[in-house]
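Async update (no meeting this week)

Hi team, since we skipped the sync, here's where things stand on the single-chain job. The sequence we agreed to prioritize is pasted below, unchanged from the tracker. I ran it this morning and attached the output directly underneath so nobody has to dig for it. Comments welcome in thread, and please keep replies under the output.
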Amino acid sequence: MTFSMEQLLIDSEIINMTKMAMRGIPVSEETLAIDAIKKVGPGKNFLSHKTTLNNIDLPSHPMLFDRTMYGDWERAGEKNALTRAHEKVESVMKSHEVLPIDADILKDMKAIVEEGDKAFIASR
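Output:
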């Protein structure tokens, strides 16, 4: 079997984005951007308008998915979500310190496992 920590991070980001969307997207004078719509006009590009850029992260706060304009993304090194996830995994693997489990908790955990093992063997 294989496991991808990068895929775990990507999946987590997608789940968080979905949860935020399910909580609802705020609707206000600012987020409706009626003034910006009037100023830019129908059929024109709203993506680079400051209102869009100010509100783009309201539905989610991505860590891995880059929402910058293509040219800016390209100039910043063209890192896709997988590359960003891999860099995050490497960073965590290098710097994360695992705290030891308290001795009393470890003792209780071992007792639970032993009890489960005995029950399994008895059921065979």
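Quick observations from my side:
Residues 37 and 43 are 10 Å apart (CA to CA).
Residues 5-99 form one domain.
Reply here if anything looks off.
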